[in-house]
Amino acid sequence: MIKRAIYPGSFDPVTFGHLDIIKRSAGMFDEIIVGVLKNSAKKPLFNADVRVTILEGLLKEYDNVRVEAFEGLLIDFAKKMDANIIVRGLRAVTDFEYELQIAQTNRVQYENLDTVFLVTDLNYSYLSSSIVKEFAGFGGDISKFVPASIIPMIEEAIKNKKEN
Ligand code: PNS
Questions:
Q1: Ligand 1 pocket: which of 12, 21, 37 to mutate (most atoms <8 Å of CB)?
Q2: Backbone dihedral angles phi then psi of residue 91, each to the nearest 5 degrees
Q3: With 90 as the cut, is the pLDDT of residue 40 above it?
């Protein structure tokens, strides 16, 4: 049986922390589907199609990784993709309570679904998409947070958001 896992998230924008989790999980499972959430509560910096394109560009060398947008419940997306493993990164104990609750809710609703937590690399344990947006919003250097190739897009999107 193929071990197909979903790594879901908002990825607005993707960070080195996300990429580290994707690369590590690609070595653990046969297939990884990076699931990009469309209907995030917050107004995103990039729409889901742009986030998918960015991730595809950054992950093209990984043959067993693909990127798909999804909306609605993660359990429905997992069923549709025929995947029964969810991968999430854990940065600190503050992530744990929320992640545990979501993982348990998902498992109550879909008992074949297991959530696997990967401990975030120490280098990225402070990092989040919100921190990237906050830092870039004040003109900070985000080269330690995200790949150089996507910095101009992030800066441009933040500038446009401020103007609107
Ligand atoms: O990167 P994020 O924003 O922390 O990712 C959160 C995500 C996408 C994993 C979570 O919000 C999610 O799965 N959303 C889809 C709706 C859902 O199924 N929620 C969980 C049950 S309440």
A1: 37
A2: -90, -45
A3: no
**Residue whose C-alpha is closest to residue 131's, from 7, 2, 21, 15:** 15
- 12 Cα–ligand 1 center, Å: 13
**Mind listing the pLDDT tens digit for each residue in 94-149?**
899 999 999 999 999 999 999 999 999 999 999 999 999 999 999 999 999 999 99
> Where does residue 104 fall: left (phi above 0), alpha (psi -120 to 50 degrees), or beta otherwise?
alpha
pLDDT at 96: 93
Query: To test ligand 1's pocket by mutation, which of 102, 105, 118, 128 has the most ligand atoms within 8 angstroms of CB?
Result: 102
What's the CA gap between 144 and 142, in Å, rounded? 5
